[in-house]
Amino acid sequence: MIATKLWLHVQPKASKTECVGWHGDAVKIRLQAPPVDGAANRELIRFLSKTIGVSRDSIEIVVGPSARRKRVKIEGVSQPDVLTALGLSSE
Predict the structure, then answer these.
(1) Which residues contact 64 (CB under 8 A, 6 or more apart)?
(2) What is the pLDDT of residue 1?
(3) What pLDDT shows up at residue 15?
């Protein structure tokens, strides 16, 4: 099965949840939720699920659940398709 692993740089407590581009080698995502009791991680998974068009169960935070820099695994979709859904180029 196809799976994509992607580094993310997450900024909690933003004015709105959105993908804002690249932060070095990571995709930068602003999250409206605060980093309290897993709220930011839940918001991240909700946002990715809705934006990419996969179920929430298809997304797993594999590195950095309590850090701003996270590695996520997304089942069932290729990396170019993930980047396109987030409005980014794979270049």
Answers:
(1) 70, 71
(2) 81
(3) 97
Domain regions of the chain by residue span: 3-85
Whether the Cβ atoms of residue 75 and residue 49 lie closer than 8 Å to each other:
no
Helix H segments across 1-91? 39-52, 79-85
Cα distances (Å, whole numbers) of residue 69 to 11, 25, 29, 53, 55: 9, 11, 10, 23, 22
Average pLDDT on 11-33 reads 97
Residues 3-85, CATH architecture: 2-Layer Sandwich (3.30)
Is the whole model's pTM more than 0.90, yes or no? Answer: yes
Mean pLDDT of 27-44: 96
Beta strands in the chain (DSSP E): 3-11, 18-23, 26-30, 59-63, 69-75
